[in-house]
Design goal:
- The structure is a single chain.
- The chain is of the alpha+beta class.
- It has one domain: Roll (Pnp Oxidase, Chain A), CATH 2.30.110.10.
- The chain is built from three helices and seven strands; from the N terminus they run H-E-E-E-E-H-E-E-H-E.
- A seven-stranded antiparallel sheet has the order 2-1-5-6-7-4-3.
- Strand 1 and strand 2 form a beta hairpin.
- The radius of gyration is 14 Å and the shape is globular.
- The chain starts with a helix and ends with a strand.
C-alpha cells in the first residue's frame, strides 16, 4: 500500500509549495522539473532521489500513476535540480522491486513499512 491519494492531494497543494523551495538544497532531495503531457505547462515536484553511477532512482511513494511520473515517462526524461545543480535525465523506466535493491538499507526498511516497491530509474543525459 503506497501513501494514500488524500495525502498526495494535501502534499500537492500544501507541503510541496513549502518543500519545493528547499528541496534542491538538501542532499538526497531534488526538484523534478517536468512538462505537462496535455497542458505543456512546466511543473516542479520535490522528491527524494538516490544517486547511482549511471543516474538516479526515485522511490514512487504515491505509485507509478502519479501525474509527474506519467509526464516524465511521456517526455522521455526530465531535469532535476539538486544541491544547486541542474541535471538532465533521460531514459526513464519503471521498476517494480519488492526487495528494494537500489535503496540504502535504512530507506528499504521505511519503504517496506509503507509498501513502496515501485521506482523510477533515470539515466544522466550526456
Amino acid at each position: 500500500m503506497v501513501l494514500s491519494k488524500r495525502i498526495a492531494r494535501f502534499n500537492k497543494v500544501a507541503t510541496n509549495r513549502v518543500l519545493g523551495k528547499a528541496a534542491p538544497r538538501f542532499r538526497g532531495m531534488a526538484t523534478v522539473v517536468h512538462q505537462g503531457r496535455r497542458s505543456g505547462r512546466r511543473y516542479e515536484t520535490p522528491v527524494n532521489v538516490f544517486e547511482r553511477p549511471e543516474g538516479y532512482v526515485i522511490a514512487l511513494t504515491y505509485g507509478p500513476d502519479s501525474d509527474w511520473v506519467r509526464n516524465v515517462l511521456a517526455a522521455g526524461g526530465c531535469e532535476i535540480v539538486t544541491r544547486g545543480e541542474t541535471i538532465r535525465l533521460t531514459d526513464p523506466r519503471l521498476v517494480h522491486d519488492e526487495s528494494r535493491t537500489d535503496m540504502p538499507k535504512r530507506v528499504r526498511f521505511i519503504l517496506a513499512r509503507v509498501g513502496v516497491s515501485d521506482f523510477l530509474h533515470l539515466r544522466r543525459a550526456d
